[in-house]
Amino acid sequence: IRCWSNIPFITMPLSRAHGKSFAHRSELKHAKRIVVKLGSAVVTRGDECGLALGRLASIVEQVSMLQNQGREMMIVTSGAVAFGKQRLRHEILLSQSVRQALHSGQSQLKDMAIPVLEARACAAAGQSGLMALYEAMFTQYSICAAQILVTNLDFHDEQKRRNLNGTLHELLRMNIVPIINTNDAVVPPPEPNSDLQGVNVISVKDNDSLAARLAVEMKTDLLIVLSDVEGLFDSPPGSDDAKLIDIFYPGDQQSVTFGTKSRVGMGGMEAKVKAALWALQGGTSVVIANGTHPKISGHVITDIVEGKKVGTFFSEVKPAGPTVEQQAEMARAGGRTLAALQPEQRAEIIYRLADLLTDQKEDILLANKKDLQEAENKGRLALPLLKRLSLSTSKLNSLAIGLRQIAASSQDSVGRVIRRTRIAKDLDLEQVTVPIGVLLVIFESRPDCLPQVSALAIASGNGLLLKGGKEAAHSNQILHHLTQEALSIHGVRDAVQLVNTREEVEDLCRLDKLIDLIIPRGSSQLVRNIQKAAKGIPVMGHSEGICHVYVDTDACVEKVTRIIRDSKCEYPAACNALETLLIHRDLLRTPLFDQIIDMLRVEQVKIHAGPKFASYLTFSPSEVKSLRTEYGDLECCIEVVDSVQEAVEHIHKYGSSHTDVIITENEKTAEFFLQHVDSACVFWNASTRFSDGYRFGLGAEVGISTSRIHARGPVGIEGLLTTKWLLRGDNHVVSDFSEHGTMKYLHESLPLPQRNAS
């Protein structure tokens, strides 16, 4: 047990044989020994006089947290020159003001000039203050820090190298954080032609090369280089076409154009890359990231160690396929080509996919069998998830029927004119439907989701990125292969991409420049996590499916048990399954109520009593822990209400705006319920299970949305379209419509073109 911020926690076991760098970001969490290099731009203020204290405190907090997890942390820091410059300027100003006050009077104070300060003198004046600051900050976390000043000569002299190595190992053994800096007060200029001459030689020109040399000498697992840019770009940051490089491989230098170095410090990005590649060659993984951005600097180090996609990761292992960024760009280009096809061509692709699902069913079921066997062997999936994972001949036949429905209904989805207005003479405006762009659909344990969503994306002309759960890897692989085979008949194979890399969902949600809409398909926890992680990308979906059935006093006995059984027992894992049964108080202790309870017992549904229901019973079932529970299994809550008005209020308070049902023969009561319940789907005398794109005649759905913007309920083709405005004129300018202009606005509605009858 260690303590950090006065909170005890158990340290994590960390062990790794050094010699080879990590191949993937996800492995960085296993890093035991870590060097954090703080560039001058990170440590110093914008005016280069003094330290960025808030930023430095945040870095110390993160390093302390990792140290207290059982890792061995080292810091290579800049900042002595800036801190010394601040102190010396203050001393010079104070000295000059005293002298001028004595000899020249106060009137000449404003004319004082500060001489240019020599860097070595600034370093000498600032080094002790910088270290005192680090010591004070680390003391807050019960961690001791030690200072080590080095020069290039310390690495060239074998005895000094051994002494340095021994000192560092002893400090780490005693749980002390070494803070290393070049001794800028006496450092000589770098030796010419001695840089990067193999693994054992690198000149300590600056703190980048010092950090790399130190990382290799100490057999460090990870080197984190913090600067004032997000990472390595393929061209100077700020230029129009500059793109952040997520993973950099040895040999990629030719594809990068380096700019100038940062506002302070000795080295630029080119020096950082050379040092990083040298460290990588020596077996140390490297990440270059931004340590100055106010939104991420407070957790940049811990994010890197957790394997999150931050900065540029240097790796010697090049993946076989494209990166997820490249896949998104391919999906964008493929989607635009797809949208430009004739409607009949898009429909032909979907018909072909439907045929492939039935023609290749043996191969599909064989792949699915592998997934089921692996899931059962590992024992990680609950029974409801195993049911979702399973495919069958009947499921594939239903999928094919749904896909053919999509193909038939997609003929005029893209490019359909929904409004025409004559603005003025020879100036006509149209509003037409267009694809949203690139969709990211993340789904769990549902391989049947892949062809459904693919067909909807094809019909609506959208590019598509698919991220399936690893539990369905074999099924997803073959279904994606068949989808691309169908797309190939019109040369748009790249429009639908399956993400097979080790991308974390949270990292995918940050690709706001490449993805236009995220659609999660899975557990409520998955949806909530994605809604929390998505920054700048809209998320369409529902976090929970808490569906209600309200049994009114005027309900038909025969209808009640059939609808409740179907809503709860037909597929209890579905998001549109009944979770809470609301019963009018007058129905308690009636034959109808007894029939409901008997039916639920026969179906082996576990009953949880709501607070009011429990109060009516002497011996009640277990009282519900929360009325906002989605069971996803053969369980449900029963609660009592006094009226349809109270049922509506209960649904609004505890429901999730998904699907809610009333069972009654009273039309007036039913209409009140239909009009007042504010949910995506509201039914009268029908099962909650009808809340489905296929059953609505949409062919399929990408999900059920409970949001109030853009699309709501089962989302089919229409929900994957947006609009754009087309204005056709003839030398029209706004000034012609001014008070003294020659033209007048007409704003006449024009008839819409006939829709495709087929």
UniProtKB/TrEMBL annotation:
Biological pathway: Amino-acid biosynthesis; L-proline biosynthesis; L-glutamate 5-semialdehyde from L-glutamate: step 1/2; Amino-acid biosynthesis; L-proline biosynthesis; L-glutamate 5-semialdehyde from L-glutamate: step 2/2
Molecular-function GO terms, alphabetical: ATP binding; glutamate 5-kinase activity; glutamate-5-semialdehyde dehydrogenase activity
Keyword Protein biosynthesis (UniProt): no
HAMAP family attached to this UniProt entry: ProA, ProB
Subunit structure, as described in the record: Can form homodimers/multimers.
Family: In the C-terminal section; belongs to the gamma-glutamyl phosphate reductase family. In the N-terminal section; belongs to the glutamate 5-kinase family.
Name listed for the protein in its UniProt record: Delta-1-pyrroline-5-carboxylate synthase
Organism in which the protein naturally occurs: Pteruthius melanotis
